[in-house]
Amino acid sequence: MNEALCNHIMVLERQLHSSEVRVNSAKLEGLLHDAFKEIGRSGQVYDKSDVLDKLSVTEDYFEIISEKFQFMTLSDTIILVTYRSYQLNKRIKSHNTMRSSMWVSEQDRWKIIFHQGTAFNEDEPSKSSFMGSSKQH
User: Which CATH number fits domain 3-27+37-136: 3.10.310.10, 3.40.50.1000, 3.10.450.50, 3.40.50.1010?
Assistant: First the structure.
């Protein structure tokens, strides 16, 4: 997979974690596909309007750290991304989450169409790779 494309998707994914983007409806809307769906780490299902409504009224954002990105090309216009994240609040790590996102390219613009977050216990042993031999960053 193209290294520049992996880096671009990783930057877009991390923008979704930034408080600057999360409180800016226009920026957030530009990253979310109209058919966007999310299954949150709580099991709750959200669509684009739910996310825009929820994030526009949320004031407290903790820093979200994302790492161990892996990418898999599903087609010329669809990329699957998996990674781990956690929140940092006063240097205390919490909310360990395994994440997966599907990004689609339409009119030369990448937008997220699906996202799922699954809580995990960092102390439990797990396989080191979500997707085997896919590209890791």
Answer: 3.10.450.50
Q: How far apart are CA 114 and CA 82, in angstroms?
A: 12
What secondary structure letter does DSSP report for 124?
S
* 86-124 pLDDT, tens digit each: 987 777 777 899 999 999 999 999 999 999 999 988 776
| Rounded (5°) CA angle 40-75-38 | 10
pLDDT digits (tens, 9 = 90+) for 6-45: 999 999 999 998 888 888 889 999 999 999 999 998 899 9
What is the bridge-based pairing of β-strands 78-89 and 135-136? unpaired
Rounded Cα distance, 113 and 67, in Å: 21
